[in-house]
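Record format v2
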Amino acid sequence: MSEIRYENFFPIEGGTFVNAGDVSSRIKSILKNLGIGSEVVRRAAIIAYESEINIVSYALRGNIRLSVTPDAVCIEAKDEGPGIPDIELAMQEGFSTATPMVREMGFGAGMGLSNIKKFSDSLEITSEVGQGTHVKTRINMAEAG
Amino acid sequence: MKLEEIAGKLNLRVLCCDEGLSREVRGGFVGDLLSDVMANSREGDLWITRQVHPNIVAVAVMKEHSAILLVQGGIPMEDTLSRARKEGVPILGTEINGFEAAGKIYGLMNP
C-alpha cells in the first residue's frame, strides 16, 4: 500500500441536477494542481463526473472519495440509494433505469457505468438493494500516459 | 481557427460571453448525450448540441471546450446563461440543424 499524497471526501445530495458536475470539476482542478498527467486527469474527470451523476440521478445522498498515491488516482463513490439488483445488466452499455425527465436532459443513456469501466484500470462494484452502492475505481499513473 | 472567424462566417448569434470569441477552436463534437460528450469530446472542441439546460456548461467546463453551439434555434435557459457567464463559456446559437452546422464548420476548418 503506497503512501497517500492527497485525500478528500465530497458529499453529494441526490436530485441536485443544477449543481451536477461541481464535485467532478473540483476533483479535476485538484488533480491538475497536484501536477498529475493530463491523460490521468482526463480519465479521472470522466469517472468522477459519471459517479456524481449516478448519485444525483438515483441516490438519496452519497459521497465521492478522492485519493492520490504516487502510483494511482482512486475515486470511490458510495451512496445511500436503491442499490443495483443485477450489476452485470447495469454494466451493459445502453441499459438504464433513469426516469424520462433525467433522459430528456441527456443523462441516463446507459453509458455511466460502462464509461467508468472503460476509463479505469480497475473497478469494483458492490451493491445492496434498498441500501446503496459502492463503486471503487483506480487509475494507474504509469499505464495511462 | 478562431471562434470569432467561425461565428462571423456562419453568422452565428453570440448568446453569451463574447470575450471568449478569441478562443481557438481545435475541433468539434456533436452530441446530446452528456456521457457521450464527456467520454469522447476533446479539449478545444466546439460542442454542437440541442440541449439547453445548465448542465451543458458543467460539461463544457470539464472538457475545456472552446464554446457551445446551440442548433435549431435552441434558447438557453436563464440558469444556463448565468452559469456560462460565471465560467466564461461562450454560447453561440444558430437556426440551422446539427448536420448542417457540423458540415459547414468542418468545411471551414478543413478547406
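The mean pLDDT of chain B is 96.
Residues 3 and 90 of chain B are 9 Å apart (CA to CA).
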